Every structure is written in structure tokens, then in C-alpha cells.
């Protein structure tokens, strides 16, 4: 084998490894986290934060708020997609060959509006969830929310607590 063939094989092996790691991580996250709904819908960072916070509660409390969390996910997903689309418009305006400041300002205003709507929805859902919890459970959520978050806690097994 010559040098170019070895290089090609190396690139193919690295690409295969990267794909396997990606799909392996997705499968592990999908099957180990019981709060992730079936279907693999993208949840976004706020949804993961809600899951992370809820996982700190006792199992009985988690079961009580899980339906509200699932309802939240269904409600927020279309708005999250609108934010993503608005963000893409901003990016397109930024990289457009013929820069148009007015178009960028309009795109930024739309992004701000979409993000504000999503924030209002998330806050309303947080009120619904908090109203189902006791004072001690709400205090526990605040304590957990204010503590540093290691990434591995997002995928921890709820039943082990």
C-alpha cells in the first residue's frame, strides 16, 4: 500500500469511529434517561434543564410532574423550532454577500420576539410544575438549580435515587 491509500483508510476509520460514537451516545442517552420521550425529538437546553431539575426530586414527585413536563415538551417544541428558524435567518443575513443592515435588524427583532414568546411559555409551564410541588420540593429545586451542573447528571438514572 502506498501513502495515499493508507491516508484514505485512516480517514475512513476515523469517520467510522466518529459515527459509532455519535450513535452510541445517542442510544445510551435515549435509553438510560426515562424522562426523554420516545421519538427522539430534540429537546433543547431548557428542556434538559427541566429534566435535570426534576431528577433531583423523589420518585413520587417525579411521577406527579412528569405529565406536565411531557405537555411542556409538546407545547414548546414548535416554538423552539421557530426560534431556530429565526436564528438561521439572522445567520443568513450576517453572511449575505450584500449586507443589508435593515434586513439584519428585522431578523434580530423577529428572533427577539420568538425568544420572548418561548420564555413566556417556559415560565408559565414552570408555574404549573411548581404548583404541583410542596414547599420543600420547590426549595430543593432552587438549591439544585443554583448548584454547578456536571453534564453526567443529565443522563443519570432516576430510579437509583
TrEMBL record:
Superkingdom of origin organism: Bacteria
Protein name: Signaling pathway modulator ZraP
Organism: Thioploca ingrica
Family statement: Belongs to the ZraP family.
Amino acid at each position: 500500500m502506498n501513502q495515499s491509500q493508507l491516508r484514505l483508510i485512516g480517514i475512513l476509520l476515523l469517520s467510522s469511529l466518529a459515527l459509532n460514537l455519535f450513535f452510541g451516545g445517542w442510544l445510551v442517552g435515549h435509553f438510560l434517561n426515562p424522562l426523554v420521550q420516545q421519538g427522539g425529538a430534540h429537546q433543547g437546553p431548557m428542556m434538559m434543564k427541566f429534566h435535570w431539575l426534576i431528577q433531583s426530586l423523589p420518585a413520587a414527585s417525579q411521577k406527579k410532574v412528569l405529565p406536565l413536563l411531557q405537555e411542556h415538551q409538546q407545547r414548546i417544541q414548535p416554538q423552539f423550532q421557530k426560534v431556530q428558524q429565526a436564528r438561521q435567518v439572522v445567520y443568513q443575513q450576517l453572511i449575505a454577500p450584500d449586507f443589508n443592515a435593515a434586513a439584519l435588524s428585522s431578523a434580530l427583532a423577529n428572533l427577539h420576539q420568538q425568544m420572548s414568546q418561548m420564555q413566556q411559555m417556559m415560565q408559565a409551564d414552570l408555574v404549573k410544575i411548581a404548583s404541583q410541588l410542596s414547599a420543600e420540593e420547590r426549595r430543593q429545586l432552587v438549591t439544585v438549580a443554583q448548584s454547578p451542573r456536571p453534564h453526567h447528571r443529565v443522563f443519570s438514572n432516576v430510579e437509583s435515587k
